[in-house]
Amino acid sequence: xxxxxxxxxxxxxxxxxxxxxxxxxxxxxxxxxxxxxxxxxxxxxxxxxxxxxxxxxxxxxxxxxxxxxxxxxxxxxxxxxxxxxxxxxxxxxxxxxxxxxxxxxxxxxxxxxxxxxxxxxxxxxxxxxxxxxxxxxxxxxxxxxxxxxxxxxxxxxxxxxxxxxxxxxxxxxxxxxxxxxxxxxxxxxxxxxxxxxxxxxxxxxxxxxxxxxxxxxxxxxxxxxxxxxxxxxxxxxxxxxxxxxxxxxxxxx
Amino acid sequence: xxxxxxxxxxxxxxxxxxxxxxxxxxxxxxxxxxxxxxxxxxxxxxxxxxxxxxxxxxxxxxxxxxxxxxxxxxxxxxxxxxxxxxxxxxxxxxxxxxxxxxxxxxxxxxxxxxxxxxxxxxxxxxxxxxxxxxxxxxxxxxxxxxxxxxxxxxxxxxxxxxxxxxxxxxxxxxxxxxxxxxxxxxxxxxxxxxxxxxxxxxxxxxxxxxxxxxxxxxxxxxxxxxxxxxxxxxxxxxxxxxxxxxxxxxxxx
DNA sequence: CTCGGCCTGCTTGTCAGACCAACAGGCAAG
DNA sequence: CTTGCCTGTTGGTCTGACAAGCAGGCCGAG
Lengths: 253, 253
Fold this sequence. Notes:
By secondary structure, the first copy, chain A, is mostly helical. Helices cover 69% and strands 2% of the residues of chain A. Chain A folds into two domains: 11-80, Winged helix-like DNA-binding domain superfamily/Winged helix DNA-binding domain (Arc Repressor Mutant, subunit A, Orthogonal Bundle); 84-251, GntR ligand-binding domain-like (Four Helix Bundle (Hemerythrin (Met), subunit A), Up-down Bundle), CATH 1.20.120.530. Chain A has helices at residues 11-24, 37-44, 48-60, 78-95, 101-125, 142-158, 163-179, 184-206, 211-230, 234-252; strands at residues 65-66, 73-74. Chain A has a two-stranded antiparallel sheet with strand order 1-2. In chain A, a hairpin with a 6-residue loop joins strand 1 and strand 2.
């Protein structure tokens, strides 16, 4: 016969587990405040030390954030999880040499390519949010995001050789593009991946020998991508985006 | 003039930060034991409470693991970082974001399509791990993973109408396929996404009216995909995989 | 000589109680 | 109405303590 290993989990872990499940199941919605520490002590029947250790674990995972010095912890919106802990995990893997930068770039490429393809399909399916009146007017309409992308593009044309300003506009452009896909999951994962490689991107941009020319070239590529998306040409948009991302990575790294 | 906001970080955060940096910089190598709690108290000049909260945070991020009930924490090997916290982060993100199933499926599709395309390219680039003798014989060679996929495929052919067995083989097949891409990042994200949809997949499989026929059809699709990958036909492999995943999703949901 | 048992000193896990600083809200004086 | 204070509550930190588990050495019985 086979014996199963005895498992002993510390109290703080059980407390953390219960709180985590409550948050993930929606019993504690984003924006909600967690009960005060002393309150949790009473509910779980443990000391404050234990509760605090559990809270630190939740905090490290990004499932609870400190609202202020004396305010109770709050449940963050899902978006903060991608720019917070998920990005951190990727950065840790990068720094420890577990995953090479090239793999992350390839991942980003795949994600964003899928996003622009979806955005293109969506853009042509209902050009001006008119097709389905049954759906309430969602705030994140594809048209809005494409307008955002256009605005970012306009910014790029006037930044001259200010690489910092260009990079800010570049971020806005890519984020808007992915948002236009309407796929929340894609967007969240993409944000994290992009964030984790952004440090390298920044260095590459700063080291450009001829910023003005490079910026002009990148801006033209952006224009082409956006045009393809707006025209509903998924295949073209995907290819252009792949060229754009991989070209930049190869040319500078 | 502009004043910058005063930033106050708690002691436990500073302790966690220093330890984190030490680990990421390699000052504490994987496998090493962290100093005992009381030792850290002395070095940082804080109380054990503070040190313990910092350690819980590190633990939650996967940068330290408990070796035993009374043993000091250890720095985990890098591979545990990938399978643990990154996956948790992704699962949390997707659960908390209330991402619709369709979005997840689309995401999985994009990831896996990129993976098989890369695997196909790689398979034809060095068919039998001969091209680059400079590289030490990596244990996770593409050929090994493709062999794994073939083994899983063989299993599928003999499961009959045992959907549970088929699903196990299906998981092995897809995991092996993505592993063959050689892109660790892709693999990690893909595993987490698959985890998030696996419950739905299981239900869909269990509810099949004619399991035997469906299993046969799915197995044939798998065969076609693997054949395309082995032939180095990236484009074909990608299209076949998209059909496979989306077809199953649409047909059952 | 070997082996089981015991004792000691370490570690983590947990607790209770206390203090401080910072914030929020009510309240009174101007 | 504004200003300033006072107080209750919260998180952040410390202290000291105890239990439980593990590793190592020591010792006596066989």
